[in-house]
Design goal:
It is built from 16 helices and 26 strands. The protein has about 550 residues and is α+β, with helices and mostly antiparallel strands. It folds into 3 domains: about 130 residues, no CATH class; about 140 residues, no CATH class; about 240 residues, no CATH class. Strands 11, 12, 15, 16, 19, 20, 21 and 24 form an 8-stranded antiparallel sheet that branches. Strands 2-1-3-4-26 form a 5-stranded antiparallel sheet, with helices on one face. A 5-stranded mixed sheet has the order 9-13-5-25-23. The protein is elongated and about 160 Å long. The mean pLDDT is about 80.
Length: about 550
Amino acid sequence: MTGIVNLLRRFGADERGNFAMISAGLMTLVVGCAGLAVDLGTIFADRRKTQSTADLAAIVAAANLSNATNAATATVTQNNYPASALVKVETGTYKANAAISPQARFVTPAVGTPNAARVTLNTQTPLYFARYITGSSTYTIRTTATATSTEMASFSIGSRLLALNGGVVNALLGSMLGTTLSLSVMDYNALISAKIDALDFLSALATRVNLTGVTYNDVLTSNIKVGDIVAAALTTQQVTNGAGAATTALSTISQAVTSSATKITPGSLLDLGPFANLTVGQKPKVGASVSIFDLVSTVAQIANGNHQIATSVNLGLPGIADVSVLATIGERPVGSSWIVVGTQGVSVHTAQTRLLVLVKVLGSGNVSTINLPVYVEVASGTATLNTVSCGFPNINTSQVTIGVTPGIVDAWIGNVTTADMTNFTSKPNPPPATLVNVLGVGVTGLAHAGMGNTTPTNVNFSYSEIQAGTKKTVTTTNFLSSLTGSLLGDLTLALNLGPLALPIPGLTATVAGILNGVTSPVDQVLASLLATLGIGLGQVDVQVMGIRCDGAVLVN
């Protein structure tokens, strides 16, 4: 018994062979770790492949938002995954806004028109050694990817001038800018024809006001003097086209507004949408070439701080002795600019405009003149980017569709006051106005007419029309060929006799006959004044300035 105990004691104290035993145990651990490493390497490799497939599927889905699920499924199967691996395809709205956390930039369902797609994939990776630990022979890999469409366009809203009257433009434009202008029709035609790049203009403006290392958004949200804005346009024009009639005319305007203290925010001119956060000087793939006259005219409207224009014009029209104008330009709807760059669903608006034209009509006989007060109100017109159809692989087949709604027109012959002109919260409902006063006998008149169409009209722009800068006019479906004719057709005349006055036979008929003879000249007065203010009677002009058609891009 004692011998056995001693043997066990010697065995326990014997340290020979310990290294071999430890080595055997460590070898088992090393082999196990190597097995797990193989499985982990397989998982990481498969995750990269799955993520790449999800990225591709999201890009294809975003480029085909109307058929996103089928497009994503085809991409998944082409990458040797079963269609069942595609768990979900969501379309929604993506906003590239640094102030929003990356996880919150994609919203589904879409707010308005979808511009992005998010794809979710589930794939299975086989486990070789880890199955003995996890109890499962496969590992599920789940990946997501979000892409947004880069199909976008830049477009503007306004009204083109088919015919120019230098006196009208000088009077109205000068009044809005707070100065006096004396340019010729040829000068204005040169400004209409001359184009500058909107982003080059913003870069010149940043340099002009000493903004360096900033984004376009920093420039757009700054308050900048009108003189600096026109000077920046002049600098851009000189670089773009060199010397010429447009440069000379713009130089004259620039000198006239140099001392102006009026400031505006350039964001009311241009909305760069997703490109606003680019550093000044960077050029995205969609641009906007703008007419210098349109730019100056829009600056003048916005700079017109009291929103009123009071002036007189001489159009030299038959039967008209004098024309006095009181115009009031309302604010554009919040967030709207003159030009916008964006994807489907973005809109631009014209400003609500009110015009009171006091026309002194030449008469005959007892009625030497007739005072005809014509009030015209044009509501805000709207243009919305409906679709951007990109032609692949032939970009020349691309087109843009704009939904356009001209502003509703409301017109009166009546006693509209200055207070009525400035109160945009309600429409005027004027009493009759005194048109004639002969020997104590007054003739009053009241008339009302309107035109409008609240249903948008789709306007298509081909790629060649976009490149050419073609403007298209949309007219309300119930547009009246003569607003003045419609007013005179509704005109109710009445005699007012003073206490000592005697009736004058046929006076109202005489007044009506004289007015009917000046229908066309008064129409020309209204059309010329409104067109100079950038709007038309029951009309609105739109222009697509650029299109981007390079598919879709991945986003965070």
